[in-house]
Amino acid sequence: MSKIESALDKAVATLPKLINWIKARSSSLWGKISPYLGKLKKLNYSTVKAFTLKYKWRILIVLIILFVGLKTYDYFFPAPEKAGGAVTVTTVVVEKKEIPLVIEATGTIVSNSIVDIRPMVTNTVAKIHVKDGEEVKAGQLLFTLDDRNDRANYEKLKALADDSEKQYLRAKELVAKNFISQAGLETSLANSKSARAAARSAEVQLSFDSIRSPITGRAGIVNVFPGSLVQASNVVTTATSSTATSSVGSMVTITQLNPINVQFVIPEKDIPILLENQLDGEPLTVKVTVGDLGKRTYEGKVLVIDNQVDPSIAAVRIKAQIPNDSMTLLPGQFARISLVASNLKDALTVPSQSVIMNPRGKIVYIVDKDGKAVSKPVKVIYEYQGNAVVSGIESGDKVVIEGKQNLRPGSKVREAKEKTKAPATSAAPATPTTTSVPDKK
User: Fold this and answer.
1) DSSP state string for 367-391
2) Is 267 exposed, middle or buried (0-12, 13-18, 19+ CB in 10 A)?
3) Under a CB-based contact definition with an 8 Å cutoff, are residues 160 and 199 in contact?
4) Does residue 300 surpass a pLDDT of 70?
5) CA within 13 Å, CB half, 431
6) Which of 354, 323, 428 is nearest to 385 (CA)?
7) 173-222 residue pLDDT tens
8) 339-398, pLDDT tens digit by residue?
């Protein structure tokens, strides 16, 4: 107690000194302010009015700036007593995922192989062995032309070739018995070879009367009929109603439908990443949908990337092959292609709806340890299937996805109660948009 009493005594002893110091400082301050107070006494209504009218626009601008500044500060940094209660939000935890880098394009279904069947000789059609839309095999007989003249010529030359061969054999026996000279034997051999060559030529000419399919595929519409005259050119004779007419076309077109190809173009800015993945040895994967509904997706592999860029469209052509076991794809169909160029590993993904646009750029709201909202600027690298790959946040941050429109920096938040989720259904791939092609990690 003695120590406390001694401290109180010292404090009481210094109290008069403190009062004297305050009086001295007050007198000094009053001496400095009193001249200005004298000037304020001279102010009256007329002087204030004159000053206001002289500087009215400056005063108005200053007042507007102060008003806007105060409102802006209150909007972004509201006082705790004005901020109200906690804002109900829904959050998601940022995770690192492997996201496929998908490039969207449109293209056309093209046949892997297509052949127009045309005659090699001018002749008439004797028999048709193929029907419209029939599936044919390679080497299958399609048309038979009138071969009577060619067959007779072949048989004639074949008989001459056989006779020349027999004469050559007899000449060999005669040379052995010295009945003819060696020159006679050589002449007989030459005649035999010439006859055999003529017979083979006639056989080839006869084979032109039997037209076979060079590939396996589906036959189109047959443009000729038995008795139609066909020529060794682009013109075939077909019958329409009761009048025979000539039309530029083929006898029939054979189209290979399984597998089938799709051809499309990719912007030249995406070429480096395509070539980089092509060097890895594994072909790139494509997903193809046809028609407006796009109920079915066909998967295939890239066959070739063209060796030059088309300068008129600044793009490169790509051809991919897809299976068509059901024969539902036909050449010429419009197709939508999703090309999986690469995979972004350890990418920070957030729902696209959590990203907010403001005059300063793109931001997201995250919830800190104290349960308050904090805005963080982010850079969106890539968007795919409703998810955005961003930079500027860390894995494990809680990002606000719903209720963000009511948030301000520093606002208190509370997590919304989880609703019973419906069973997940397989969603169709959404249309991805690429803002920039990032480097493959």
Assistant:
1) E-TTSBEEEEE-EEEEEETTEEEEE
2) middle
3) yes
4) yes
5) 6
6) 428
7) 888 888 888 888 889 899 999 999 999 999 999 999 999 999 999 999 99
8) 888 777 888 888 888 888 888 888 888 888 888 888 888 988 887 778 888 888 888 888
DSSP annotation string for 68-133 = HHHHHHHHHS--TTTS-SPEEEEEEE-EEEEEEEEEEEEEEEE-SEEEEE--SS-EEEEEE---TT
CA distance 140 to 249: 21
How is residue 243 written in tokens?
């009048």
CA 303 to chain centre: 16
**Among the residues of 281-401, which ranges form H helices?**
none
Angle at 277 (CA atoms; ends 276, 283), nearest 5 degrees: 140
Looking up tokens 């028999």 gives 127
Closest CA to 440 of 278, 320, 321, 300: 278
Per-residue pLDDT reduced to its tens digit, 7-18: 777 777 787 888
Residue 322 burial (CB count, 10 A): 22
The token pair that represents 62 in the structure block: 């200053």
SS (H, E, C) 358-369: ECCEEEEEEECC
Nearest to 381 by CA among 430, 438, 321, 439: 438
Question: At 40, is the pLDDT very low, low, confident or very high (cuts 50, 70, 90)?
Answer: low
Coil/strand/helix, residue 199? helix
